[in-house]
């Protein structure tokens, strides 16, 4: 899962559910909550700020830092989060 997060390009994002759905094709399981738990415990070494909820809300408790990082990458921000219509990313494979 962390390898997938590392592949998200600068300025783009994936939702917890999007990551779970993508990985379900390989593992047979889809759990956005599990993705969130893994990110909270082990996501410090990957671009964690590129993982948001399905509405584009930024990681809880880290909104200011995530917003600053995404802004620096040129991500399309909207309100309190990211414009998912413009920023949502899916791996090409």
From TrEMBL:
Limits of the Methylated-DNA-[protein]-cysteine S-methyltransferase DNA binding domain: 3-74
Keywords: DNA damage
Region annotated Disordered, chain positions: 58-93
Basic and acidic residues biased stretches: 60-72
Pfam families given in the database record: DNA_binding_1
SUPFAM superfamilies, per the entry: Methylated DNA-protein cysteine methyltransferase, C-terminal domain
InterPro entries (UniProt xref): ATL_DNA_repair, MethylDNA_cys_MeTrfase_DNA-bd, MethylDNA_cys_MeTrfase_DNAb, WH-like_DNA-bd_sf
Domain of life: Bacteria
PANTHER family for the chain: 6-O-METHYLGUANINE DNA METHYLTRANSFERASE (PTHR42942), ALKYLTRANSFERASE-LIKE PROTEIN 1 (PTHR42942:SF1)
Name of the protein described by the UniProt record: Methylated-DNA-[protein]-cysteine S-methyltransferase DNA binding domain-containing protein
């Amino acid at each position: 899962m962390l390898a997938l997060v590392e592949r998200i390009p600068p300025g783009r994002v994936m939702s917890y559910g999007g990551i779970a759905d993508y990985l379900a094709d390989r593992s047979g399981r889809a759990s956005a909550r599990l993705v969130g738990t893994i990110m909270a415990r082990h996501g410090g070494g990957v671009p964690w700020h590129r993982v948001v909820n399905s509405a584009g809300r930024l990681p809880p408790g880290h909104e200011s830092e995530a917003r600053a990082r995404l802004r620096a990458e040129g991500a399309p921000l909207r309100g309190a989060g990211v414009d998912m219509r413009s920023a949502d990313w899916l791996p090409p494979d």
